[in-house]
Amino acid sequence: MIAHRWNSRKRATAARRQRGATVVEMALVMPVFLLVMIGVIELAMMYFSNLTMQYAVREGSRYAITGLADADPNASNQQRYQAIIQKIKDSSTGMYAKVSPVITTNNVTYTDSSSYNAAMFGAAGDILVIQIDCYWPLATPLLKPFFTDGKYHFVVATTMLNENYGSN
């Protein structure tokens, strides 16, 4: 009977020690695990923003080559260039404003909406090159030191030939 109590006490003490060791191991491993996990999530967001903006530029270009202007939110005075920008915004799933875009079309750069104009996407039969410089702001300080100003810079572009559309 005494031996049985001795063994059960020994087992209880060993179990307490094991639980303490588990807590210490968890305290050592958890910060590293969380840093790696946050880094993976941040990288995934960077790639997602790149792919989303590439899709948006492609959709905007596909719309631009048709010469249509019906996507312009200003229904009373629809402009082709506004419709194309709106198509890019709609296709970017809300990321357009977040990436601080700088649009370049046919080697002319437009830094903000006040510089947009009717000729920026070319005329019928012209080759259209749309390039957008994007800056994705990083959410965590983990990767910020590796990027200029803590922002991931990427460029998305498409090249297409405008169709021979009539004047709109």
UniProtKB/TrEMBL annotation:
Residues 20-62 form the TadE-like domain. It comes from the Bacteria. The chain crosses the membrane at residues 21-48. Keywords: Membrane, Transmembrane, Transmembrane helix. The keyword Membrane applies. InterPro entries: TadE-like_dom. This is Pilus assembly protein.
